[in-house]
Write a structure and sequence with these properties.
By secondary structure, the protein is mainly β. The chain folds into two domains: 115 residues, no CATH class; 53 residues, no CATH class. It contains one helix and 14 strands, in the order αββββββββββββββ. The radius of gyration is 18 Å and the shape is globular. The chain starts with a helix and ends in a 12-residue tail after the last strand.
């Protein structure tokens, strides 16, 4: 426990005063909005600068709040790494990692389906998907290569590393999965 307190203190003392930590409850519509692509809540744009902690209660037996989102705002925009958490089989784990540069997705993006199973991963550059993105679906891996947010080519690989299918652009059935 001491390690976490020291870690939080180092973050706070290096960037912000203690008064700039904002702690809210999951689903508070003053500070949060529904996600675009899934039923969940995310922090709104244009919040005060500082570290934002979104807490939620995991169940009625739990007396303490659990961390759902932690992220930082700079100049009223999301900035730096945002982590979204979930609980699976009693294990509190990172569900999603997003990186921002003054309100724009910029850097590594990873989302998990469960504690042990990744869903999608790739990189944003200035708000656009760039380079290799990987979607994990059942025992298959779909690899899509992007340039300036446009899918250039893709391939489907089985669990043994064999290419099953490949093509140009992005196959229609994947479009719903690649909008994080």
């Amino acid at each position: 426990m001491r390690i976490y307190i020291i870690f939080l203190f180092v973050i706070v003392s290096s960037n912000y005063s203690l008064s700039q930590i904002h702690r809210i409850i999951y689903g508070d519509s003053i500070y949060m909005q529904l996600c675009k692509y899934a039923y969940c809540w995310e922090l709104k744009d244009s919040l005060e600068d500082g570290i934002w902690l979104v807490m939620y209660k995991s169940n009625k037996k739990c007396k303490d709040d659990n961390l759902y989102i932690i992220g930082t705002y700079k100049n009223y925009k999301k900035h730096g790494e945002f982590l979204r958490y979930s609980i699976d089989s009693g294990m509190h784990y990172v569900l999603e990692i997003e990186n921002y540069t003054i309100g724009v997705l910029d850097g590594l993006y990873i989302k998990w389906k469960s504690f042990k199973e990744r869903d999608i991963e790739g990189e944003y550059i200035s708000g656009k998907r760039e380079g290799k993105w990987v979607l994990y679906k059942e025992n298959l891996k779909y690899i899509i290569y992007y340039k300036n947010d446009i899918a250039q080519e893709w391939k489907c690989i089985d669990e043994n590393g064999n290419i099953i299918k490949k093509g140009n652009g992005c196959p229609d059935f994947l479009k719903t999965f690649i909008n994080p």
